[in-house]
Design goal:
This protein is mainly α and 104 residues long. It has one domain. It is 77% helix and 0% strand. The chain contains five helices and no strands. It is globular, with a radius of gyration of 13 Å. The chain starts with 5 loop residues before the first helix and ends with a helix.
């Protein structure tokens, strides 16, 4: 069994979820987030998408992206502190999301 480093998992997952929130992968991801992490996380992902879509600065991965990714990192670190068994699920979800992002 692989060792899970919660901070690293939270960082990678946050970056990936935030990237996916502003892509077509969002529609696949939102259902899985709700199913596995809960409706609160599903709502937060929808809010992230809304903020990213509202950012008209045209800077790509600018301040809004980084603030959303930072918020997700904190959320996911808290999740992993409370429920360490979610680590492997989060690793798998992040891996699959990254693969889907690469295809789009």
């Amino acid at each position: 069994m692989d060792v899970i480093h919660p901070s690293k998992v939270a960082f990678e997952s946050a970056r990936t979820l935030t990237t996916a929130a502003d892509s077509d992968v969002y529609w696949w991801l939102i259902d899985l987030v709700g199913q596995y992490l809960g409706w609160q996380y599903e709502l937060k992902l929808a809010e992230t998408r809304s903020r990213l879509r509202s950012d008209r600065s045209g800077s790509g991965q600018g301040a809004v992206f980084f603030s959303e990714a930072a918020a997700w990192r904190v959320r996911l670190e808290e999740l992993l502190a409370e429920r360490p068994e979610m680590g492997h699920l989060l690793v798998d979800l992040t891996r699959e999301t990254s693969e889907r992002l690469a295809r789009y």
